[in-house]
């Protein structure tokens, strides 16, 4: 297209910076007034009560960076950024962390997230559903590793129906 590679890089950086400045305006966790509706929508998805969000990470593949390249190699051997998302029942993103190299584990991103710190101090009025890589906390529910009873099986099934991939 006749555009120098440096110019493309500068434009991508400028657009990325502009989007990052808008993130807090568009990505917000439900307020106290919205929580009841969020819980109701999640319950209708899979009979899991008191759910206010689902959390997961996804790897966004990138070209190998020139500096500290090894940090960006994920468990599948590809260069990536590990992005953590919390979503609601409508698949709207309510919390987002986009700063970790691909080698960083999901649970570490979670522990270093501002949301984790906030919820450890001020417990939310509800729970966030996560997969087994995340810690089990009073406000984070994970599936049973092995469902040995009918009630554990029902719980795991409801968890799975309620927390589809983001």
UniProtKB/TrEMBL annotation:
<comment type="function">
    <text>Transposase-derived protein that may have nuclease activity. Does not have transposase activity.</text>
</comment>
<keyword id="KW-0540">Nuclease</keyword>
<comment type="similarity">
    <text>Belongs to the HARBI1 family.</text>
</comment>
<dbReference type="InterPro" id="IPR026103">
    <property type="entry name" value="HARBI1_animal"/>
</dbReference>
<keyword id="KW-0479">Metal-binding</keyword>
<feature type="domain" description="DDE Tnp4">
    <location>
        <begin position="55"/>
        <end position="161"/>
    </location>
</feature>
<keyword id="KW-0539">Nucleus</keyword>
<dbReference type="GO" id="GO:0016787">
    <property type="term" value="F:hydrolase activity"/>
</dbReference>
<dbReference type="GO" id="GO:0046872">
    <property type="term" value="F:metal ion binding"/>
</dbReference>
<dbReference type="GO" id="GO:0004518">
    <property type="term" value="F:nuclease activity"/>
</dbReference>
<dbReference type="InterPro" id="IPR045249">
    <property type="entry name" value="HARBI1-like"/>
</dbReference>
<protein>
    <recommendedName>
        <fullName>Putative nuclease HARBI1</fullName>
    </recommendedName>
</protein>
<dbReference type="Pfam" id="PF13359">
    <property type="entry name" value="DDE_Tnp_4"/>
</dbReference>
<dbReference type="GO" id="GO:0005737">
    <property type="term" value="C:cytoplasm"/>
</dbReference>
<keyword id="KW-0378">Hydrolase</keyword>
<keyword id="KW-0963">Cytoplasm</keyword>
<dbReference type="GO" id="GO:0005634">
    <property type="term" value="C:nucleus"/>
</dbReference>
<dbReference type="InterPro" id="IPR027806">
    <property type="entry name" value="HARBI1_dom"/>
</dbReference>
